[in-house]
Design goal:
single chain, about 650 residues, alpha+beta, Rossmann fold, 5 domains, seven-stranded antiparallel sheet, 25 helices
Amino acid sequence: MHWSEAIANEIIAKKPDKEEYVCAAGISPSGSVHIGNFRDVATSYFVCRALQKAGKKAKLLFSWDEFDRFRKVPKNVPEEWSRHIGKPYVDVPDPFGCCESYAKHFEQEFERSLSRFGVMVDFRYQAAEYRSGRYNQSIIHSLRHRREIFDILDSFRTQDAAEGEREAYSPAIVYCPACDKDTTTFTSFSEDYTTGHFTCKCGYEGDYDFVNGGSAKLAWKIDWPMRWQAEDVDFEPGGKDHASPTGSYQTSRIISDKIFGYEAPYFTGYEFIGIKGMTGKMSGSSGLNLTPDTLLKIYQPEVILWLYSKTEPLKAFDFCFDEEILRQYFEFDKALNDYRAGKGDERLNAIMYNVDVPGHEVKTVPMSQLVQLGSTVDFNLDALETVFEKIGTPYKREDFAERLALAKFWLEQCSPENAYKLRSIRDFSVYNALSDEEKQEIKLLFEHLSAVDDSLDDLNTFLYSVSRTVFPGGNDKEIKVKQGRFFKNVYQLLLNKEKGPRLYLFLHAIDKARYLPLLDFSTPATAMELAAAQPEAPETEAAPEAAAAPLKPEIAIDDFAKLDFRVCKVLECVDVPKARNLLKLTLDDGLGGRQIVSSIKGEYQPEELVGRKIIVVANLKPAKFAGEKSEGMLLAATSEQSGCKVIFVDDAVPCGTAIG
C-alpha cells in the first residue's frame, strides 16, 4: 500500500460519512517558492488523490499566507525594500514592476509552474479572507480566551514568563493605518473584546473595531488552527520541525482542541529535500533560486512527481544536477514502461498513479542517449532523428524534442564537461605523442571507415579487431589493454576526451564526413593545426604563500580524544535574522539531527551548503548566538588568502561517521 493510501484510509476511518474531505497546504509568498516547499503541496496532493481513488470526494486547498509580515529582503530583491519590513506581503510593492504587489509576483510565479504538474488547487488568498471580515468572530473568540492561549504557548517554552507578560498578551496584531506595519501593541480591550486600543512605533495611536475591521491578524500558532476549523481541514502536512514535540503542530493541535473545539487534522511531517551536483553555472553563488520552474528546465514534471511519490514523506531524497539525474531518468522510464505494460506490482502502480499529468504524454526516449548523441549533432532535431534511424531506434523528433531541450539545458548549464563536441581541426599534439603501432591503429580505422559502410555489429567487431591486427602476438589480457588504449586515443582525436559514447554507436550514427578528416594524418599539418599543437607558455611563478600561523601549545592524546568529530549532512541552511554574518544549519548527524550556527554568511550562500557533508565537533557545549541555539561547530580553514573555507566530506561517507 502506498503511503498516501494508508493516510487516506485513516482519514476515512476517522470521518467515514463526510461529504467532502479537505487536504490543505500553505506557503507564505516571502520570495520564490523553493522546491523544498513544494513537498508541502505534493504530499497533500497525493493524499487527496488517494481519497478520490477510494471513491471519496476530496479537494486540495492551498493558502497563500500573504497577510503575513514581510520579514526580510531576499537576495534577488533590492536592499531598499527593507523599508517595507513589517508590512503584509500583499501591501509591499513588486520590486520587479510587473505585478500589483510583492505577494502577487511570487504567487503567480509559483502558480504558473504548478499548472504544469496538472495539480488542481482551490486557492485561498489570506489577505482577502482577513480583510473581508470572515475571521473577525474567530479573532474576537481568541481574544476572549487570550490567557488560556498564553498558558498553552507558555507550556511549550523553556523559559519562565516575565511578570505581567500573561496579562499583556494578545493573540492578534493589527496593521497600523498610518504606516501599514505590524509594529503595534494593544494596550487595552473593551470588556467584550470587540474593540481594542493600540499604539504603534511610528507614533500613531487609536482604537480598533474587531467586529467590522479588516486589519487584524492572528499570530501563526493561533491562525493555523483557526483556519483548520474555518475550512474543515482533514489533512495537512508540514516540515519535520513542525512535527517535533515542541513544534508548531503540537502547540496548534492543543489550541485547536481547547480554544476552537475542533479536532486537529491528520498531520505528517516531511523531510527536507537534498540538492546534489550544484556546480558550474548552476551553483548557489550565481543567485539561482531552486524553484519548481528551475527544476522543470532539466526534469519533466512527471519525473519530479515520481520522486516525491516514491519517497515516504519522512525520508529524504535528492534532486540531482550531476550525472545522477541520468540514473533517475533511467529508473523512471523503467517504472513507467512497466506500469504501462501492466507489469507493475501494487506499490509501483500506486506510485505511478500519482505521476500522470493530464494532457501530457511522456515518451521514454533514453535521456542518456539524448545527452550523448544530442551534443554531437549540436542538438539538431533532424540530424538526431537520422542518427536514431541509423542505430536501429527510429525515434521521431516529436518523440524526443521535449527531452532533448532538457538534455541541452542540463549539459550546457550543469554538466558542460559531459558534452561531446567534435574537434574542428586535427590534433597533432595528440597524434605525435602516439607510438608507431598506435598511429598504425588510427590509420587502419581511417582506411576502413573510408572504404566500408558497416552494420552496427560489423563495425563493433572491426573496432575490437584493430589492436589484434597491429599486435598479432599479444595474449588476451595484453590485447584488452591495447584495445582500451586504442579507444582512448580515438576519443582524444575526435572529442578531446579520454572517454565518450559507445564508440561503435558514435561512429555509425554520425555523418562520416564530419569526423573522418580528424583521423586522416596523411597530409602535413596546416598553419592553424601547427599553432594549436604548440605547447602552452609556462605559467608565471605564483607569489609565495604567506607564512603559516604558529603552532598552538602541544596537547596530550587524551585531550584530543575528548573531541567527537562527526560527519553531518546539511539539510537546510538559512540566514539568522538580525545577524550580519551568521547562518543557521540544520544537520543530519545520524543521531536524530541537530542545528549549528556559524559565522560564514560572508563566504557562502545557503544554497551552496545544502546537501553537502561537513565535519562537526559534536560534543561541544551548546551555546546561543543571536538567540539561536548552536549544538556544535563546523570545521573550516581560514587564511588571509582564501578567507574561510568549509572542509567538505565525500558524499559516500555516511552521516554520523566518527572522524579520528
